[in-house]
Amino acid sequence: MVDRDKSGETAKDFSVDVPMETPGFFLKGSAHLNWGMKNRLSRIFNPKSGKTVMLAFDHGYIMGPTSGLERIDLSIPPLLPYTDCLMCARGTLRSCIQPEIDKPLVMRCSTGATILKDLSDEVIGVTVQDAIAMNASAVTTQAYIGGEHEKATLANLARLINEGNLYGVPTLGVTAVGRELVRDSRYLGLASRVVAELGVHFVKTYYCEPGFDEVVAGCPVPIVIAGGKKMPELDALTMAYKAIDQGALGVDMGRNIFLAEDPVAMIQAVRTVVHDGEKPEKAYDLYQTLKK
Length: 292
Ligand code: 5RP
What we know:
By secondary structure, this protein is of the alpha/beta class.
C-alpha cells in the first residue's frame, strides 16, 4: 500500500545537513504553541540537553503481565530516578506508582485491542480530562498508517489532539507498524509526517537504516524512538546513539531497559548516550561497571 505512489516519484531533497531552526523555544516545531503546551513539553524534554529518556511500560494494556513487567510495583520504581518521563496506562500508574514522584507522565489513552486479536483495532478509552486529573503532561495513542484500521486510528489520534488542544496538553503520536509493512525510511517517514501534519506535538517511531536522518528531517516536530524487541545491550545502545546522532530527540524505551540483565545500569547507560552524546562503546563500559 505504501508503494502505491512510488512510480513517477521524483527525487527528494531532505537537506539533512540543515537542521530546522527553533526560534523562540528549544524544541523543534514548537515555537508557536501556547504556554501550557510549552511548559508540559519542557517537563518531558530536558531544556538543557533538549532530549528525553522516556520509560515505556504500557505493554500490559495489550499483553497482560508480560516478561519484565509481571510486577510493576517491583520492577519500575528503581528505574524512576533515572527516567525523564513515564509512559504508561492509568490503571498501572494508579496502582503501582507512588504519587509522590515528581516525574512527567505520558498517558496511554487507547484500548480495545489485545495480543489475542487484532492489535490495530483500537478506540480511545481514556479522556484527556481524566489524563489531566492524573496530572499527565501528554497523552498518546498510535496510528496504524497503511493498516486496515488506518482511518480509525488516525481518528483516535485526532480526538486526543483536539481535546488536548483545549487544555494545553500535548499529544504524542506513535507510529505502529502492522505485520505486513516494512519498517524502512520510506514507510516511517510517511507515517511520522502524516501524524505530524495531523497536529501531534511529538512523534514516537522506530529507528531504521538507512535513511533515519531523512525520517527526522521530513518530520517538523521532535521524534523519539521506541526500543523494540529486546536485543543485546551494546546493540540497543548503538541504536540509541545512531538515532540521536541522526536527529532524534530522545528514546521511549521499554523492553531494552526493563529486560536488560541489569535494568538500573542500562537506563543510566542510555542516559549518557541521549543526554551527553556518549559513544555506545563507552556507554556499554559504563553499563558493565554499574552492573551488579
Ligand atoms: C507500543 C508502544 C510501547 O510503549 C513501546 O513501543 C514499547 O517500548 P519498547 O518497544 O521499547 O519495548 O508505544 O505502541
